[in-house]
Amino acid sequence: MAETNQTPLWLDRDLLREISVDFEGRYVLTKQMVADYYEVDERTIERFLEANKEELEHNGYFLYKGNSLKEFKLRFASDIDVATKTTVLGLLYARGKRHHSCW
After folding, report:
1. CA separation for the pair 74, 60 (Å, rounded)
2. What is the pTM (predicted TM-score) of this model?
3. Cβ distance 87 to 69 under 8 Å?
4. pLDDT tens-digit profile of 4-39?
5. How many CB atoms lie within 10 A of CB 32?
6. d(CA 9, CA 73)
7. Half-sphere exposure (CA, 13 Å, Cβ side) for 31?
8. Element (H, E) at 68
């Protein structure tokens, strides 16, 4: 990870709230949001997700599609770079320092 942002996101609840979006009562992050924080390419986050898929799906990585994805895009399209033709979007729940999270 980049040296300028070495603190794991989950250690700083205020930062998590600042850089995430509130969706369905949870703070969520896209892969790009995490990549931007750590100053790495989104592909780095994708490789991390793939290597830790089982644990992350159990602890806060969810694929949104259908009506949930449609609502997410309607609410945040102007704030987050999500292609309009995206049919599935992975979102990471930002849990804050009270809960274990790798972000």
Report:
1. 22
2. 0.72
3. yes
4. 455 665 556 777 778 888 888 888 888 888 888 888
5. 14
6. 24
7. 18
8. helix 66-76
